[in-house]
Design goal:
18 helices, alpha/beta, 40% helix, single chain, 18% strand
Length: 543
């Protein structure tokens, strides 16, 4: 019943043809109303319960979702919205109120698991925690598969498994979000290993996604699985062709920052953004990052090349076991961390400090990530009863082995690698760098030792090499695959590798093929060290 416009006479309206009533209110700790549980009678003594956002109950256009999801027979959406508003107001003290969270993960000193007891995680569009983090099959079979895989695959398997387990340690350990990829030839057991890692937490068929998704979708997954791992497989499904390939380094960089960059709503208001913490595990037949990359992505991704983790028979068995026995250890691992977090953190600090003092040549961020993964694996074995205590010896051996396979800081420094690539490029394209030769028989007349119609630059007699800016941009960005010529030039200038003058700092005017042009000149010995006394040493600083 609702009150008519005069406010004096109650009047009844038929809002729905099935009994329907709000039964629970879910509020955040901040008391911000988020969702309701609505019970809908769909048969004799049969009630279906549906979780809906608060704004859906107040919007006659959105409220019709109850018909689709809950089976309600709605006669008047507008009257039903008024009914809910009145019912909730009149029964606010009677409807049970439950504390809820917008994301799983650490809340204070407690880890809230997606399917954890009285703690409720807000329903998110496109995600079904109940089925994603479900439990299926035999616990002992799952446990034995983990032990056998670690024995057969060695350090690679133990550390990769650790990346999925260390996801919930990122926030309390105060380290950047962890990302790892195993790549190698087809059939080596990579996907089987990833399914095993996912099966610790839930259903691998639902938790593992392909790369055929947008950047925002990947961010939505990370936000929905906050403090929990996310999984990507089948790198060949990347959408967008060349543009999609170029977006992969940005994907790595954005995940490490841990912020979901949501677009505006249709009405112009900004969607709520989420921070997220955790790890992402990826597999593929080729590396995500090519040999040349900007944006610091190499500092944020552990790439491991392995061709054969398991034989075909064991890999097939691992596939079957992971897909049919899963979800037995995720919540146990979360509870174990809640109980032993201080001990684990102290162990991590001491072990990582010792590792960093050894002056590994790879990035410190990768050292911390691998230390966290190795530590998580050893403590997980304690959690599931495989070991009695933390195995410091295996931890050190695994961490040292993986660190020894990673590229050094010099290998992943873009400016250093680009210089080496330019040296190789120059050696293979020497004929496209002209040497101007003056003809003494005709004063002022100049001949050219190379073809004038295609030229990348000029080599001087003192071994300095000049590049035309347009040619250098093409070489670096199109031929060699670097993201930004300007960023590299600024780095080279700061290292003193370029001939610098006034004005723009690194561009000079020089004469190439009889014309005065702007050029970027590398100092002697940087690109070429071969003397060539036939070239002119003629250049002018560009103001």
């Amino acid at each position: 019943a609702v009150v008519d416009d005069s406010g004096r006479f109650p009047k009844r309206y038929q809002a729905a043809n099935t009994p329907i009533v709000p039964t629970k209110i879910f509020r955040e700790p901040s008391k911000h109303l988020t969702q309701y549980e609505v019970a809908i009678k769909t048969g004799e003594n049969i009630w279906r319960r549906v979780i809906v956002d608060g704004d859906e109950l107040a919007d006659s256009k959105k409220i019709i979702r109850l018909a689709k999801d809950g089976g309600a027979l709605i006669e008047s959406p507008s009257h039903l919205a008024k009914f809910f508003a009145r019912f909730i107001a009149e029964n606010s003290t009677r409807i049970p109120e439950i504390k809820c969270y917008q994301q799983p993960g650490w809340h204070g000193d407690k880890f809230i698991y997606p399917t954890g007891g009285d703690d409720y995680i807000v329903r998110r569009a496109g995600f079904d925690y109940e089925h994603e983090f479900a439990t299926c099959g035999d616990r002992e079979k799952s446990k034995q598969a983990i032990v056998d895989a670690c024995d057969k695959g060695g350090a690679f398997v133990r550390v990769f498994l650790g990346f999925s387990l260390a996801s919930s340690l990122v926030r309390p350990f105060n380290i950047p979000n962890i990302q790892a990829q195993i790549h190698g030839k087809s059939g080596g057991g990579k996907t089987a290993l990833e399914k095993l890692c996912a099966s610790i937490h839930g259903n691998p068929r639902k938790l593992i996604r392909t790369f055929a998704a947008t950047l925002k979708n990947r961010q939505a997954v990370a936000a929905a699985y906050n403090d929990l791992p996310s999984f990507l497989d089948e790198l060949e499904t990347v959408n967008g062709g060349k543009k999609g390939e170029e977006s992969l380094p940005q994907m790595i960089y954005d995940f490490s920052l841990g912020t979901a960059n949501q677009a505006n709503k249709r009405d112009g208001s900004v969607r709520e953004t989420f921070e997220f913490f955790g790890s992402r595990l990826m597999t593929g037949e080729r590396p995500i990052l090519k040999s040349h990359d900007q944006r610091g992505a190499y500092k944020r991704l552990v790439q491991m090349h392995v061709d054969n983790l398991f034989d075909d028979f064991f890999s097939a068995d691992l596939h079957f076991t992971a897909e049919n026995n899963y979800g037995h250890f995720g919540k146990d691992w979360a509870n174990f961390q809640t109980e032993h977090l201080k001990e684990m953190h102290n162990e991590y600090i001491s072990r990582t400090t010792a590792a960093l003092s050894k002056n590994y040549l790879c990035e410190p961020t990768l050292v911390k990530a691998i230390a966290a993964a190795s530590l998580a694996t050893q403590y997980f074995f304690v959690c599931i009863g495989v070991k009695d205590s933390f195995d410091a010896e295996t931890f050190a051996a695994d961490a040292n082995f993986i660190l020894s396979t990673l590229p050094t800081q010099e290998d992943i420094d873009d400016s250093t690698r680009a210089i080496k690539d330019l040296q190789s490029f120059f050696a293979g394209h020497d004929k496209y760098f002209v040497r101007d030769v003056k003809d003494n028989s005709a004063q002022g007349f100049t001949t050219y030792t190379q073809n004038a119609w295609e030229c990348y630059g000029k080599k001087f007699s003192n071994s300095e090499v000049a590049f035309l800016p347009t040619a250098l941009k093409k070489i670096l960005e199109n031929e060699l695959g670097y993201q930004s010529m300007d960023a590299l030039i600024a780095e080279w200038a700061s290292k003193g590798l370029l001939r610098c003058g006034n004005g723009r700092g690194y561009r000079f005017s020089t004469r190439i093929n009889g014309k005065v042009v702007s050029a970027i000149i590398f100092k002697a010995g940087i690109i070429s060290s071969n003397d060539d006394d036939t070239a002119e040493d003629e250049y002018y600083a560009t103001e």
